[in-house]
Every structure is written in C-alpha cells, then in structure tokens.
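Methods, example record. To illustrate the input and output format used throughout this study, we show the complete record for NH(3)-dependent NAD(+) synthetase. The sequence lines were provided to the predictor; the line carrying structure tokens was produced by it.
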Amino acid sequence: MTDDEAIAQADSPLDLTLNDDELEARREHITGFIQEQLDAAGAEKAVVAISGGVDSGLIAGLAADALGPERVHGLVMPSEVNDEETMSDAVRVAERFELPHDVIEVGPIVESFLEAYPEGGEHRMAAGNVRVRTRAVLNYLVANTENGLVVGTGNRTEALIGYFTKYGDGAVDCHPIANLYKQQVRQLARHVGVPESVAARTPTAGMWVGQTDEEELGIEYDTLDSILALHVEGDVPASATAREVGVEEPVVERVRNLYERSAHKRQVPPGPETPY
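The corresponding predicted structure is encoded as:
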C-alpha cells in the first residue's frame, strides 16, 4: 500500500470536528454511560474535580445532565500554582450547572508531604505530581463518604500520550470522555454550555506556576490530534503523516515515542505469571 492509499483509508483523520447531530449524539451517549456506571455500582453521587479547564468543565455539565445537579459533588482544589482567574472559572462552572461544590485548598496538604520528604520539593515534576495525587485522595475521601464514584476528566489525546499523572488524575472510576480528542472536547463543551472563558482556556495540568500543556509537550493539540489519528491509531506511515499534517517527520516520531513509552499508564500494573 502506498502512503497516499494509507491516508485515503484512514478514518477521516484530519477532519476530527463533529457536526451538530454528532455532538448531540455524543452528549446522549456519554450521559447514558455516566448513568449506567453509577447504577452498576449502586452509587448515589458523582464526584467531579473542577479545575477551571475545558475537560472538567465538560464533565461537570455532562454529569449534571445525566444525573441531575443534586447528585453531582464538585470539588474545586486550588493550590499556590493556580491563578485566581482559573479558580474563579472553576467556581463559575459549578454555578453554571447548579452543582453543590466545595473549595478545598490543597497547598497545606502538599506542603506536609514535602516537609516529610524535603528532597521531593527540589524536583519540580515530583512536587507537581504530589499536587495532582493530593486532589485524587480528596476526590476519593468525598466519594467514599457519600457513596459516590469519582468521574474522570481525561480525554483520548492525553491518554494516548500518557499526559496524565498515574494514580493522580488517572485515578478515577470511569472516563466518560475517553473517546474524544482534545478538539472534540472543546466542541462538545461549547455545545453543552460550558462558559467560553473555560472552553477557550489554554490547557494546563496545574502542576507548577506558568505550566501549560502545549508548551510542555512542544506541540499544539490540533496537530497532536491529527498525528495520533493518522499515525498512531490509523497506521499511516510517519513520512506520509508528516506531509499531510505539515510537520517534520521527527515530530511524528516523537509523538509515537510518547505513545509507546506511556503504555504502562494505560495498563493494569503487571505481575509475574504463575510459575506452574
């Protein structure tokens, strides 16, 4: 098969946008999924960490749609690395969808960890992951108290490249938007009424001051989505993907490397086979 034939056979890899009918179908499918997850677990509530970003804004709206606002508990968990505008938007999301919510400062909790092991505070990534994992602990504290499930906010793009914290934002009971690329998340967020300031916000994991996803990754999300759809999931050769997307081939290879190196994050922790 030639490169052009491989591109032609890919499932609309560059046109990842959804039309209005498709957006509504995704909305109905995901809200049904959330309801099914709670019913299967016998859970009474969904717990959603609301960061002020588009992913959590979308989940907040979809969970409210699926269950009714009274069955969704929103948690806004700022630390010293989060700017005031983002946290204000997190509260706006909760209020937009009429969700009961709490604001819990994670900074003092994180500091207690770093005081217990000061060397960790000298490593930016390690300290950043402590912030994310602290939020996960609080999610489950609330969920266990209220017979709830922690509803995740991870999307397809970030899952494929491992751009999440293991046992942090990846520690959830279900991933309702796991099949949506980042640009589709933005589309659906606007469709369900997430505030525009949230839908258009530059994505950040909130791990350290000034951190943004695209700067850390070194690639824009729309480009990343296309490379993943063509090369990683569509099996289009790297050279053809690079030409089609308009990037250098090493960029495609780097995305492939991110996918392969992060495989452990998408799997159950391994154990040895039974020796007999």
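Annotations derived from this record:
The mean pLDDT is 91.
The radius of gyration is 19 Å.
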